[in-house]
Amino acid sequence: MGKVTGFLEIDRQVHKYQPASDRIRHFREFTLPMSEKEVEKQAARCMDCGIPYCHGPTGCPVHNQIPDWNDLVYNGDWDTAIRNLHSTNNFPEWTGRICPAPCEEACTLNLEDIPVAIKTIEHAIADKAWETGYMRPYPAEQKTGKKVAIIGSGPAGMAAAQQLGRVGHDVHVYERESRPGGLMRYGIPDFKIEKHHIDRRVSQMEGEGVTFFCGVNVGVDKTVEELLATYDAVLYCGGSENPRPAGIPGSELDGVHDAMPYLVQQNRRVAGEDIQSSAWPSEAIVAGGKHVVVVGGGDTASDCVGTAFRQGAVRVTQLDIRPQPPEKEDKLAVWPYWATKMRTSSSQAEGAEREFQVATLEFVGEDGVLTGVKCAAVDEARKPIAGTEFLIRADLAFSAIGFSGPIEGGIMQELSGKVATVLDGRRSTNIKADDRDYRTSLDRFFAAGDVRRGQSLVVWAIREGRQAAHAIDAFLMGSTVLPR
Fold first, then answer.
1. End-to-end CA gap in the chain
2. At 394, which helix (H) or strand (E)?
3. Who's near 126: CB < 8 A, 6+ residues apart?
4. Distance between CA 467 and CA 444 in Å, rounded?
5. Pair 151, 177: CB distance under 8 Å
6. CA-to-CA distance for 61 and 384, rounded, in angstroms?
7. pLDDT value for 279
8. Mean pLDDT of 250-271
């Protein structure tokens, strides 16, 4: 906890943003950092709540010891706070930027709509760790002689690799793309997290003995069978990247795209890479001077909105089949869980027009080119209501309605019939493995992250990577000192 009466004396403050008119002119991060003293004041608001739901299963998937490092920051002991935070989270500078902060939803002070600014404080601790030189390689003192291959270098693969490397295993990470990071690098826009945050972690991990092999598409360039013949264990962290089919008539029109090729292209463009990707082939997609419609109401849709504005879109409309949520939730009915309420992302706040409780009936075009999106209001069963149809002008439209599992072909084609899969409640086909030992039905082959649990948050991927590392180390060595 922080100061005993801090929550009574100090108002909640969080990071502020550059004005929308300024930030849409670039692809850099636009959060304005708070001073060290301001952060310490916010940490002082952490109250003696008795049961800190913020770091339990309802609040933080990696079980960050939030009250502990709040108290340390309040007392100016940043060094210990840094060590405490990194004991549970390998990459707090990532989660401090892009996590939606379920911990703040679970904060006791959220009962009064004034939760502790946990995400802001985590962001500050992580940045302080780099400033003070704490973030250096921590190689293992002894090698175990065991070799582990990790397929995929997203948050789950990176977390597992760092944990396994630090206990002395020889860890090799195989990445399909030209640089490590997975969808952290190629899916999430730079204005949410600049990619040097990934690069310096890669450098740290290489200093700890982890080896990255980029441009290697396992299942195409190298088989799983080859990996199993070379390594003592193989961990699959390929992510959930297969776009969920929208099934909307007119999807074949020029100007209609899935969200991911668009986001990947722009991230590659910002990085100075060739915009074409073998996994996301598409012609150049640019929203400048266009009317844009985004189908979907989640984070990926919001990322398309922010990217379109920065490319110079004339108008951006976001369509959500769900009803407009209430401005304020019933705290006693849902706290400490994530509440359904009206939320406006930074991208939406840049000028998006939002339509709720509407179905996308058809993409309309002329001579094979998109000209509009036909919509209709829906009832409680999400069925279109006759007579409510309307047309939105569109030169460009994106489908951002989620993902249905790992990309088909390649490694999934090789694994077909060898590894059991499961269809989850969101109609996602995932690799079957539990969250205790992360073992699949194929001997010495493990799976973690979105490829196992379905599309989820970066913080959940980090948790799965850490827990899979625990399970693999125990499998290889008979026991483990790694935390779950």
1. 24
2. none
3. 85, 92, 93, 96
4. 16
5. no
6. 38
7. 78
8. 96
- Give strand pairing partners of 393: 372
When pLDDT is averaged across residues 42-61 and rounded to a whole number, the result is: 91
- Angstrom distance (rounded) from CA 319 to CA 357: 8
User: What whole-number distance in Å separates Cα of residue 467 and Cα of residue 460?
Assistant: 11
Determine how many CB atoms are found less than 10 A away from the CB of residue 89. 27
CA–CA separation, 265 and 260 (whole Å): 8
- Paired sense of beta strands 429-431 and 421-423, if any: antiparallel
Residue 283: φ, ψ to 5°: -70, 165
Rounded Cα distance between 327 and 310, Å, is: 28
Beta bridge partners of 392: 373
The pLDDT tens digits of the residues spanning 110-126 come to: 999 999 999 999 999 99
Tell me which H or E stretch contains 462: helix 458-477
Rounded to whole angstroms, the Cα distance separating 329 from 338 reads 10
Locate tokens 């209609």: which residue? 256
Give the rounded distance of the alpha carbon of 481 from its chain centre: 28
In sequence order, which residues have a C-beta less than 8 Å from that of residue 239 and are 6 or more positions away? 152, 154, 156, 182, 183, 406, 449, 450, 451
**Is the Cβ–Cβ distance between 1 and 65 less than 8 Å?**
no
Residues ≥6 apart with Cβ < 8 Å to 288? 311, 312, 313
pLDDT, residue 87, reads 97
CA distance 420 to 26: 45
Contacts for 27 with CB less than 8 Å, ≥ 6 apart: 189, 190, 191, 266, 270, 310
CA dist., res. 335 & res. 40, Å (int): 26
Tens digit of each residue's pLDDT (9 = 90 or more) over 355-378 = 999 999 999 999 999 999 999 999
